[in-house]
Every structure is written in C-alpha cells, then in structure tokens.
Amino acid sequence: MAEISDAARAAATLLHRLLRERSATVATAESLTGGLIGAALTDIPGASVTYRGGVVCYATDVKESLLGVHHDLLHRHGAVHPDVAIQLALGARELLAATYGLAVTGVAGPDPQDGWPVGTVFLGFASPEGTGATELPLGGSRAQIRRVTTEQALRLLSARVARSTSE
Predict the structure, then answer these.
(1) What pLDDT is stored for residue 167 in this prediction?
(2) Is the CB of residue 87 less than 8 Å from the CB of residue 97?
(3) Was domain 6-163 assigned CATH 2.140.10.30?
(4) Quick one: which of 4, 78, 106, 119 has the fewest CB in 10 Å?
(5) Of 32, 45, 42, which is closest to residue 143 (Cα–Cα)?
(6) What's the order of all strands across the beta sheet hosting 130-137?
C-alpha cells in the first residue's frame, strides 16, 4: 500500500476541520487513486464524524451500476472525462448521504486510456451549492500521479468547503 504523504495528511486534517465547523460530511468515489483519498481521510483521528465512506470504482461498469454515471456518457467519452468525475461525485454524495462528494478519474499509466495521455486527471465535486470538475495535467510515475491526485483532490474540496456558507 502506498504511504500517505505529509501533504495529504495536512490536507485531510484541514478538510476534516472545515467540515466539522459546518456540521458537514464527505463521501468519495475513487478510480485511479484506488482508495488513497479514503486512506488519507481515515488516517486522521475523529474522521468518522465527517467522512461517510467511499467507493473504489476502478472498473467502468461499476461507475455506471453503483454510482449512476450515465451509460451514454461512458460509451461516448470513456471513463476519463470531466462529466464522469462530476457524476461520480454526485453518485458518492447520494449513495452515502453526504453533504459533499469528491471524485477522481484519470490515467495513472503506464498506457494512455480513452484517448487521454498518462497524467490526465479529473477531480469532481458535488456540494449543496452545485458541482464542478477540474483537470490536473500531471507528470511523473504512476505512484507520483496517484499521490499528487490525492493531495490535490483534498485541497480542492477544502477550498470549496471553505467558500461555502455554514449550514
């Protein structure tokens, strides 16, 4: 299992604090990170207050059957697409009854996928205020891409939660 980086631990700690301040929760849907985001979140004592759980949806059919990603979207664009990241985040949020959904999909390598080069990553989020996706063009090894994706996903959601209104 990959080691949780200090940066991921710091980002997870901040996210938990922001969620606690708002009495909010998060659920995750992870593809290329394979559970690293959930591992970073659960590495923090007291995580059960704000982390509802996560789905590792590595296979494309699981994205559709478990998290509700539209079949037509997957058929047209494949699993690596910003709209897939958004639908994964929405699916995790709904499935696990969380305030926020956080999702990642992309290509860690070693080969391109769905026409996307290695290092293409999409982070998706779903919140009471809406949804969105961000593209991360990353380089490096498979392990580096997965590590940086984990760190950036936690930072992205922390920024979104910080901008949201308290509930």
Answers:
(1) 44
(2) no
(3) no
(4) 78
(5) 32
(6) 51-56, 26-30, 100-106, 120-127, 130-137
